[in-house]
Amino acid sequence: MKKVIYPGTFDPVTFGHIDIIKRAAELFDSVQVTVAINPSKKPLFTVEERVDLLKKSLKGFNKVSVDSFDGLVVDHAHKVGATGIIRGLRAVSDFEYEFQMALMNRKLAEDITTIFLMPHEKYTYLNSSIVRNLASFQSDVKDFVPRVVKEALQNKYPR
Ligand code: ADP
To answer: What are the structural domains, with CATH classification, of the chain?
Structure first.
């Protein structure tokens, strides 16, 4: 059984993330989406909220599970029995950081391979921080995030 993890901040999950998750689920037997507990970042949503929004957004995806992790991605991959790390590549601007991370992770754990997937081009300009910004200005984000996420954003930024 080929299992991969898809780590990220997911603050909050967007249709870009979900596009990557669908592609990964077509290629692998099991995809574990895993929310990074990163104390140096100041996310809008708590870890529990991000996990909950992912779970609600991914209902009906039967090969996909959601959890969170603290520490190194490769340690988490070993712990859950995954042999690959999925990352999304939108543009050249993602490349340098992702390349560095992938090589460092390979140095730390040679048995774990990073796999890059590209989303549909309509999601290449999309990221969580743009969505948070739009929502903070009461702009409609329905084209970018599932309905539960849109509602959660409205609760964070009430009119
Ligand atoms: P991180 O802080 O780890 O970059 P993110 O939640 O921003 O966490 O992203 C997780 C992964 O999803 C990263 O590999 C990122 O490049 C990818 N990603 C984010 N938004 C998109 C998108 N719109 N299309 C494809 N991949 C994306």
So the answer is: 3-124 (3.40.50.620)
